[in-house]
Structures are given as structure tokens and as C-alpha cells.
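Predict the 3D structure for this chain.
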Amino acid sequence: MYLLKEKPVYRSAATVALAMTLLALGGCGQPAEQSSEQAPAPASAPVTVVLYEGARLLVGDGTVIENGAFTVDNGQFVAVGSTGEVSAPAGAARVNLSGMTVMPAIVDAHTHMSTTREALIDDLERRAYFGIGAAISMGSDGPDAPLELRDEVIPGTARFLSAGHGITGPEPGRRVVHWVTTEDEGRQAVRDEAARNVDLIKIWVDDRNEQFVKLTPAIYGAVIDEAHQNDLQVAAHLFELEDAKGLLRAGVDIFAHGVRDQDIDDEFVQLVSAQPNVVMIPNLPSRGEPTDFDWLAGAIPDEQLQELQAGRADLQVQATFGIQARNLDRLNEEGMTIAFGTDGNTPWAPHVEMEDMVMSGMTPDQVIVAATSNSAQILGLADMGTIESGKSAGFVVLAANPLDDITNTRRIDSVYLRGEEVDRAGLREQWSAGEVD
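Done. Predicted structure below.
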């Protein structure tokens, strides 16, 4: 239990950071002369703990703490609980979040980001702006991709993971990844990517509307086996129900999409139930109906915003969404672990995907768990996904409660990654000035 001082002063994160810097640097002038009879006072280390209190905390595992509090030190959560029950050392900075809701930073477990260093850093900055704390590029990173960024800590950016170069049958004119036509070629492709220390293996099992010859069960089975021998999970792009069944029988770990050609059947549900560790990333398509994108004003170019606002109803797209939405709803009801991803390279897409998942039948709290702790877990990010002692202090402060309306994840007040506030205003100013393409 800690005691509130009378009329406590709450400081913004920027003020806190400045104060911590000044404390750490100390004075710049020469020390004053001291009497030989007077010993110098012992120096005390500056207090670096920040106490955040008063917000509703969505922990990320389904737990909600009303009027919560947590402390952050050295980029990590230290203590989490109710306001008045979380102690902080004397001199700790304090931030009042009354009326706000705090959730963990989002983890996007399926993207395709840029493959040059400068452009990739820009991608990661834009994701940080929208509250994404980590994202994995799923299979498009060739030999020249800057995978070293995974080991770098760049302030104001989301964490980067990569599946390296994915594996598929030959797709001339479409994509250049590992094209394999035999089991041995598939195994060698896995070994090549394992040597790059990729975070998982991505495969495509899809003939692209009969344009190409897709991977056979024998080939993707060999790929999955070789990946597991190298302690790597396999995420599969797929389209058809029969391929999804074959992938389950072969031991796939992650569906990078849901089944898209038809409603799933009882046999598929039984196969899923027999393998409870298999995870699905829905990656829902557009709903095919006009959507309000006013919340993006100021964060994207006006021309792009106008184009988004001009969207019209499309019955064919609505039917496609309906298949995947029903499949997601059924698998969620059956207890399959649902994670979260957006495909492509749209940094604000997670907030649309979350709404789509709720429209499919999931509850807002289930979606938030999918987008935080579930996705962190499948990517091996043990220090992310929940607001919990010892984990990296990545969190989003919202002006409204997404449990009431999932679109409230868009009402971002501030974003913190590794305990530091993301300079969202500075990023907007930089983008509006055209400093970043």
C-alpha cells in the first residue's frame, strides 16, 4: 500500500522522460568546494519507476481490472493490480489515466512488409503509431531482406519478426520464393531458411484458381516434418477445405487463413479437435460494404482516405466474407485457438480486422485476446501479449472501452513500447511534411 501525497502532480510521459534525463545527467558545472571536515553526502540513484493508475486494464488474457494500476521500470511491467494496491517507491513519477482503458500492444501475426531497411523501419513506425507492438513478415523476405532488424531496438517502432522466404510450387510471373517440386527440394528449402534463423516457415498450398500446380501432400508433409526437426513451426496459406484437412493430417501448426471455398464440415472440426495446438489466423476479407474511415484522418494522405470512403457494396465480396465469417464463428465456438493477422502491408488494418472478427460472431474480449496474448504466444514472444509483471511494457491507452464497442481500439490516446511513449504527433507531422514516402 502506498500513500498519496496531498494534491499529487501527474506528469505526461514526455515530462517524465525529460525529468529522468535531467536526473541521470546531473549538473554540468564544476562541483562546489567542500570543507575537509565535511564528508560529501552519498549520491542517490534517480528513481526510474513510473506509476500509471486509474485506467480500466484489459490484461490480454481475458482479465479486466477496473480502476487498475501498474508500474513500469526499465521498459518492463513491474507490478499490476488495482489502484491503491500497487506500491511504488518514493519519488516515482505518476501518470493519471482515469477514464481511460489500457490494453496490451497488438501483435500482428501475418503481414508482408517492405524488404529494404529504410522502408521496413517506416513500416514498423507506422505500425507503432496504430498500437502494434510486433509484426511478422510472412514469407516474402528474400536473401537481401534486413533480418538483422529483429535484433535491433529502434525507439518508436514495432518489433520485427520474419518467416524469411516462403515455400510453394513454381508460380512463374507471380512471386519469387522457394519453388519446390520434390520432397527433397522442400526439405532443403527448410534447411536454408533455418540457417537464416527465421521465426517460422511459411508455405503456400493453393493453385491460384488453377493457374499453378500446388504443393502435394507428400511435399508439404516433408516440409512440415523437416521444419519440426529444426524446431520451427509451419504456417500455411490455404484456400480449399480439402487442403486444410490434408495440412491438419500432416501436422501443420498455424493456418495463416481460414478455409475460403466453402463452409467447413464436421470432419474438419473433428480433425481440429484432435489437434488442440493448431492455431488459426482468420485474415478475413473485406465485408463488401461501405465503411467509415474518418478515424484515419490526419494519419494517411487525404487522397487515400477519400478512396477508402468511396467504397461501395459488393454482393460477391459479401458472400466471400460470409463463408469465412461462418467458419471463424464455428471454430471459435468449438474452442479452436484464434490468433490475429492482417496480411498485406497496411499498418492500420488491425483495427478493421478486429471489427470484422466481432462481426463474425466473436466477442470483443475474445478478439482482444486473439490480437494480443494468443498471437504473442504462437510467435514465441514470451515477453509480450499481456500486461503482466516482468513483461515488456507495450501498451495502448484508449479514450473509450473496446469491450463496449470494438471500434474503440481506434480511439488511441497514446502508445507505449518498451516503456517509452511513441511520438505519434511527431510522426504525423513528419508524414504530413512528406519526409517519408
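Residues 1-42 have pLDDT under 50 and may be disordered.
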